[in-house]
Structures are given as structure tokens and as C-alpha cells.
Design a protein that fits this description.
The chain is of the alpha+beta class and about 130 residues long. The chain has helices at about 1-10, 30, 75-85, 100-105, 110; strands at about 20-25, 40, 55-60, 65-75, 95-100, 120-125. The relative contact order is 0.26.
Length: about 130
């Protein structure tokens, strides 16, 4: 699935075009497998490597306290890099692990504190 998507992006990007995207951090479901606010994917009984391509159910809570049902298809970091390479991207992408920052906690302590120091997303920035 990623390879096809990345191939389509590669085909439409001009030379030296920039592709920026984020994906759920592959480890997040296993660090926070329980159904807890404000964000989770159900990783109970699943394995980081054996669970590749499995759909994980989850929830993101809104500030109102109402949960929103979300899903992700589990991928490893290697899946992302391999898919980029097979699509034609030859340069090593810049990758950052995203988490809640102290600045976000200062804005809304009750909402963001449970996610402090949790691996939430991976941000990729790759050039054609």
C-alpha cells in the first residue's frame, strides 16, 4: 500500500520536489496499548513485527471529551524507508519522532500530560 502511494507521489513531484508526511509511530500502540485518553491504538496481544499490515483500531479524544474512532494500518520504520526507496526516492529522508512538548503541556496540562514523552508520530521529509 505505501509503495503504490509513494510511487504516485514520486511520479508527480518535480525534480528536487519535497514530500513531507507523517505516520503513527510504529511503537506507540505497544507503549500505550490500553484504551486510555487522549489517544490510543489497540495493540493488546499484537506484535510490532508480526503485526505489519494489520489494522489497529483506536480513539482520539476531542477537547470536549468525546472520543473519535480512528484506525491505522501498522507499519514498521523499515516499511516506510523500503517503500520510499522502491518508489524511486534515492536520498535519505529527514525523519523526526514527534511527541507532546512541554509547551503543549503548558497550554493544556490535563489534555496533553498523559502523552508527554510518548512516541506519537514519525515525520518524514524527503526530496526527489
Amino acid at each position: 500500500m505505501l509503495r503504490g502511494l509513494f510511487s504516485m507521489v514520486y511520479d508527480v513531484l518535480p525534480t528536487n520536489g519535497q514530500f513531507v508526511f507523517s505516520v503513527p509511530h510504529p511503537f506507540f500502540s505497544f507503549v500505550r496499548p490500553e484504551q486510555s485518553e487522549p489517544f490510543n491504538f489497540d495493540g493488546v496481544g499484537k506484535n510490532c513485527f508480526a503485526g505489519v499490515n494489520e489494522q489497529f483500531e483506536g480513539q482520539i479524544w476531542k477537547h470536549s471529551g468525546e472520543p473519535l474512532h480512528v484506525q491505522c494500518v501498522h507499519k514498521t520504520v523499515s516499511d516506510s524507508f523500503d517503500s520510499l526507496t522502491s518508489a524511486g526516492f534515492a536520498k535519505i529522508p529527514e525523519m523526526k519522532e514527534l511527541t507532546v512538548t512541554p509547551e503543549l503541556v503548558a497550554e493544556d496540562e490535563a489534555f496533553f500530560t498523559p502523552l508527554l514523552n510518548q512516541p506519537l508520530h514519525l515525520l518524514f521529509n524527503v526530496l526527489k
